[in-house]
Amino acid sequence: LLCLFCSARFDSDGPLFAHCGSVHGFDFHKLVRELGLDFYGCIKLINFVRSKVAENKCWSCAEISQLEGKVPWAEDSYLKPFMEDDSLLHSLSIFDDEEDEDCGMPVVTGECSVGNGRSGELQGNGLNTIIDDCSDISARFEKAVTTESNGGDNNGSLSEEQTDRQLKITRASVTAKEIKKVDDNYFGSYSSFGIHREMLGDKVRTDAYRDALLDNPSLMNGATVLDVGCGTGILSLFAAKAGASRVVAVDGSAKMSSVATHVAKNNGLLYDENANTEQKGGPQVISVVHTKAEELNHKIVVPPNGFDVLVSEWMGYCLLYESMLSSVIYARDHFLKPGGAILPDTATILGAGFGRGGTSLPFWENVYGFDMSCIGKEVTGSSARFPVVDVLDSKDVVTDTAVLHYFDLATMKESEMDFTASLELRLPESGAAAVAGVTWCHGIVLWFDTGFTDRFCKDKPVVLSTSPFSTPTHWSQTIFTFEEPIAITNEKSVVGSSASVGSAECPAGTIRSRISIVRASEHRSIDISIETTGISSDGRKRSWPAQIFNL
Amino acid sequence: YFTLGVCFAGIHEEMLKDVVRTRSYQNVITQNNFLFKDKIVLDVGAGTGILSLFCAKAGAKHVYAIECSQMADMAKEIVKTNGFSEVITVIKGKVEEIDLPVPKVDVIISEWMGYFLLFENMLDTVLFARDKWLADDGVVLPDKASLHLTAIEDAEYKEDKIEFWNNVYGFDMSCIKKQAMMEPLVDTVDQNQIVTNCQLLKTMDISKMSSGDASFTVPFKLVAERNDFIHALVAYFNVSFTKCHKLMGFSTGPRSKSTHWKQTVLYLEDVVTICEGETLSGSMTVANNKKNPRDIDITLKYAINGNRCKVSRTQHYKMR
User: Fold this and answer.
1) Once rounded to an integer, what is the mean pLDDT over residues A105-109?
2) Which pLDDT band, with edges at 50, 70 and 90, does A18 fall under?
């Protein structure tokens, strides 16, 4: 950890702050106490001090005590680390007694699962060393320090700070506090075993991963594997069984990483760095690390871009809910070797139109004699907030299936997680084509397939599908109901009609929906917008207002 | 898998479709007009507003429906669509934070019960409303709730939920079992699984209690009615509306028609072999978790000294 004012380094924040007090006259703990700073206040203060030191401005000079109300580091911009890879921010132990999660299982000494990321606990454990890549930063810093003027210029700065305080605070993105709150809920929601029981019991899901890992020996034998979001560790266990030479399993939940460690150990698959060379080469290849994927290289030494295989089960409802994909992409870019395998390597969002049976409208129209149809419409209306996650009976699908969007998980950029694409829906040509009358399409059902293709899985490619035509999975499907149903037909010639397209008199030949899925301002949520146009066989169009959903 | 806000309308659909629940409240209200006629009513946690609608129809002078979620906007529209805007005022906000335009109400009605009665429940909110706004001779509906315990044979399901961890795709995940058992299961129990009598653990008088009364330790003694194995204890609750003309209420027990609350199943580490007439005794402690008050900590002590089985154990459970 780098001192706030000079290039001295420390193993933990305690000695660092003691040094700042004795050598630089900056009493961090006193300031925190006097100002009543919380955790985020401390983060902001540290970033503020670093920024001012870098600019050679004096932060204090007794001006702090004269502040009324707002401190000069109040702005949320000070939540952003001023210094890249500032380990001090990760190692702040000042509020530690309120943070410990009850893992329920003792962490056996000698194992590599790290408790809660404090740097102090990494000592003495050969596997855990913080990468010291701050060399370029300390060079910058040295430059700043040597140009610091002696005496002089110490109180010209505060008038600038006063102006800063008066500047409007703009919130362009989610603050670190919001992210932490959502992430705590997110990782916490996975610490209940019922959820893991359900996921492991989802045979379609778990069998697909098992097959991809166990039936592709040419990929897995001797490979080094990174498992992102390992949970109970099942994918790492498969990888070890498949002959991986080394598996690093990562999870953001302290409880689950403790569980995964125990499970690996009880199955004789936990890596033991103290094992002698004779014992190595056996199946004990799994290390479990409690960390967010993005911080893996803060917790253990990993050669950049060194893993042969990255495996993760990251998919959420409508594929992208939970937004875990961005962590997977980060891990791919930083830890997977060029040309390394990512499992799965493709993801496709597909859709189709469904009929009245797929809606809940009839229920809301009469509830104990009261008309609650506005709730039914809420699910469909232009300001509808939530799509329905549920299993759609395949008999309620009325159109052909169409592809909405395809992701190449090996090459896509994180920014491509947000996308806009179109779905073109038509009635099937054959079969029920001779249906007399009109088919009503009440909305769109979306689902996803993920592929473990022969790009990496050359021995046995696998597809994991959540289609309404396949065995249901715990993802079900995601159902978006139109504001009003649209009539659709596959008769080629529609009698010239003045009625609007999509009505019974003039059914559409094609329903085109322009769908955007983007990450919402609330961390891990997604916004989905659907703009639908009905197109008659003679080319006339009618568009409906955009519907916005949030998941 | 991350259930914040997903299927929002679906939760209300499930509750409304729970006929036992909704029809019981409907019957209480429509068969006891005297409780509501010309009275001021407060509906705590109104949701879609269904209870307020029943009360308005029963002749209430005015109903204040408090709901803190986005459903309040829907409730407003429903009230309007059904022509009750003059009678029902929907207030969007938290009970602890809003103001009522009246100093006192005559009736507080609420459907606040959670799984295991107390999990994620609104009881504290109802008690707050009672203390702040209920007139001296006012009525709380429901006014009584009780928690009950029985024991069941459940080999098949325990196998599926707990023993499952012994072999997961060939891997030994049995270290998870102990932790998995700490999570009570909300599920429907078949009455044929019941091995012992059902014992009343605790009653609560919502018109009088304080919120601390929802934490307690009580002893129990369950007597086997046949020779069998016991894999789990099952808890369920009853509610009563004693101010009605005739006693009304409903039970969520395994011998009653099923509700969306189902029952709460607590698996025992031991498989207890019990003979008819023998006793499984012990105590249960229920309290809010200190760190996360919305979670419930349950401590179960049980012992049996029977012909085929002598066992004594303490187990901890956490509902979160």
Assistant:
1) 32
2) confident
Q: Which of B67, B111, B153, B278 is catalytic?
A: B111
- Could you give the percent of chain A with pLDDT greater than 90? 45
User: How many angstroms separate the CA atoms of B128 and B130, rounded?
Assistant: 5
CB A426 within 8 A of CB A440: no
Count contacts between A and B (CB, < 8 Å). 120
Q: Report residue B308: phi and psi, to 5°.
A: -105, -5
- Residue A539 forms contact with B (CB below 8 Å): no
- Tokens 């002089």, residue? A152
Look up the domain containing A156 and give its range. Answer: 127-189
Say whether A370 and B6 touch across the interface (CB within 8 A): no
Nearest to A237 by CA among A273, A200, A276: A200
Domain boundaries, position B275:
145-319
| Burial class of residue A215 (count of CB atoms within 10 Å of its CB; 0-12, 13-18, 19+) | middle
Residue B1 has pLDDT above 60, yes or no: no
Please indicate, yes or no, whether the overall pTM of this predicted structure exceeds 0.90.
Answer: no
The answer on pLDDT for A326 being more than 90 is yes
pLDDT over 80 at A256, yes or no = yes
Set of chain B residues whose Cβ sits within 8 Å of the Cβ of A201? 164
Alpha-carbon span A435 to B209, nearest angstrom: 64
Euclidean distance between CA atoms A373 and A226, whole angstroms: 49
pLDDT of amino acid A332: 97
Mean pLDDT of chain B: 93
* pLDDT(B51) > 70: yes
Q: Does a structural domain hold residue A109?
A: no
Structure confidence at residue A175 as a pLDDT band (50, 70, 90): low
The mean pLDDT of B21-30, rounded to a whole number, is 96
Stretch 406-425 of chain A: residues touching chain B, C-beta under 8 Å:
none
Cα–Cα distance for residue pair A428/A123, rounded to 1 Å: 65
Please give the span between the terminal C-alpha atoms of chain B, in angstroms, as a whole number: 16
- Which of A313, A378, A414, A416 is catalytic? The answer is A313
- What is the C-alpha to C-alpha distance for residues A221 and B195, in angstroms, rounded to an integer? 53
pLDDT reported for residue A276 = 63
Last residue of a domain, one of A68, A103, A138: A103
Lowest mean pLDDT, pick from A471-475, B48-52, B57-61, B183-187: B183-187
On whether both B182 and B54 belong to a single domain, the answer is no
Choose the mutation target among B168, B264, B294 for the interface with A, i.e. most A CBs under 10 Å.
Answer: B168
Residues A338 and A226 in one domain: yes
- Count structural domains, chain A: 4
Q: What is the CATH number of the domain that holds B74?
A: 3.40.50.150
Nearest-Å Rg of the Cα atoms of chain A is 28
